Predict the structure.
Amino acid sequence: MPFTRILTGAALCAAPHLSYSETVYADLEVVHLDDYLVETNPATYRLKAPAVTHQIMGDDLRALNLPETGDALQHLPNLFIRKRFIGDKNALTSIRGTSNRQPGRTLVYADGILLSNFLGTGFGNSPRWFLVAPEEIEKIAVSYGPYSAIYAGNSIGGTVLFTTKLPSKLTSTVRVQSFVQNFTEYGTDRDYVGRSFYASVGDRKGRLSYFAFLNRLENDSHPMTFATVNESQTTAGGQGALATTGALRDTDFSGNARLVYGSAGSTEAIHDLLKLKLGLDVTESLHLRYTAMYWQNQEKSLSPETYLHDSAGQPVWAGRVELGGRTYTIPANAFSLSRRYQADLVNAVTVAHEPTDGLQAAVTASWYDVLKDKGYASSSALPLAANGGGGQATIIGRTGWQSVDAVFGWHGTDSFSAAHAPAFGYHYDRYFTRQNQWAMTDWTRDEARTSLSNGNGGRTRTHALFAQDAWRITQALSLTLGVRWEDWEAAEGFRARDVSGNRLSSSYPARNQNAWSPKLAVAYRFTPAFTSRLSLARAVRFPTVGELFQGSLSTTGSLTQNDPNLKPERDLAKDLTLEHALAGGGTARMSVFEEDVHDALISQSTLRPDGTTFSGVQNVRRVRTRGAEAAVQARETGIEGLTLDASLSYTRSVILENPGFTASVGKQFPRIPRWQVKAIATYAATRSLSLSAAARYSSYQYNTLDNSDPFGGYGGTDSFFVADLKATWSPLRMFTLSAGVDNVNDRRYHVFHPMPGRTWVAELRWTF
């Protein structure tokens, strides 16, 4: 690819040497290049960060059980995706010093299309992993930290880049998959079953190529939440308490005695993704690409379980009850029912110009449109809620995001071009949302909405310019310099609600800020196979729409649950990495890193001067993270046919200053484990049979800022070790059978919610 060649000088030591290729120039000696620095697809090339980058090739994914694309990232160094069940669209990412409660710190692109959901920072704002199917992936590159000027300050944690395929000939694939999990916890013990179907067709006719597929996933999850109550101090007696049995005794994450009296039951999830990609080679150097994605989702939680029964054996769902000589009040909505319907549409166009000499460019523009998002929940339990009754509707209005990315480079034959790889460009994004929560007289009928209980919305906009150059000073020494300027605006923020028939509303003035983010990386190649690199970067991450505006108004019109004046996060990041290219292919590396973040954004509760409590996203004055990683990707291990990808990481993230919550100072930042160990071993037993084993270990993570939850369990977080197995057999060229199991040791662990237990996966694939 011409654009790959223009970066030859820059590629030297500018990014990790995960594998090596050789390029020969008439006036230069043979040099080793990082062929992951630039995407080789003409429509999607992107410079990788001058820092640690870990890559997975599409063929490597065969070693994993992959009901969903996000599963492909679970085994990467110092990275964790909190996926609660197959079909969970709220799968948040934790990378190094970024908690999975901070989705605003992870950038995700697929073929240049921005998939990061910066509409908020809650659990519903995870990247849109489900818009990429495992079968279409050519490779995945994860760049750790904000070390490239090409990417926004949202890359504080890291940047995930998907490259997908366009076919060169007629190809079609049909895949069916089935999975089953036996889940046992508290009073729940049952099997949960799911399935998926994928069908694709693609071809290239002259200058035109196309690829289209349908991906459907259906799954019943295990329970996500359990109904609990702290042990009562009120002894039984008096009138109106119903004698019941069935509750289970337990202790919570802080060691307090509690009773578990039921579960929310299964979530029935159905995802449908229809995707079309068109490519046109207008000339040898001018390429066009169009992508359209339509995704719809249905979720239903209609089968809660109560463990409580009266003396006649009838289930008890709510009311005043007597348990073990004490009395409790079960809320009417303790076993609420819910439904949600969603539909999203994405359109994206890429124009790439790659002449053999001169200015090269790639411009991608995309529009992510939330067509429909309606959620309904009952305010009562079974059996009343099954036939209607009061409830609440959450209706998402005009919501989505737009983005433009333009990246330019230069390729020449002179001495400057041989030693430099300049890149510069422009970025634009606009995120906007509007949502209303309505009281309902009948939660099963959309038209039964009455008063507005909460309305909010707003938008953010960013313009950015960047420039970066990787300068090969000598054959051994290279210097990468970059700078990014961002102009950010937040506007149109509002809150509203109905009180006594009157509409209360409040709007907030527009805000505008800009920031400079310089970058520096110095790399030295001791030998052709051994490289060191020091990377430094400043990054600024501005608040999202949700962090600023998704709060509510009290009945008196005062603001609750959000702060429209939040400051941006400011990070000073450092990384020192030593890398060694292995003789048989692959690398071994050792990295130490530090992130010093001022005004970190996280949800917490603080006491206001007027004596009231404020709970919502706030600025924590300073959080420092230090850590180390060791990783090996080995294509040759001394055993023919055996490959290995393994890593060990240590991360210590500490809150240094937090005037709003002084009890958290000196404590470990939540949802960041100190130790993680990952390994995948794949063995090609025969030409048609492949065996793989994978394992993941994570040490304990706190769920609270003051580390007041040391005991784990449901509602807290646990350490865990899980192992996965898979066997893949291809008896004929067109047919592939595979069988696998995730969490074969059936480890029961929690990241607040219960995580998946032992899950069996079977797959049949037909390709021609």
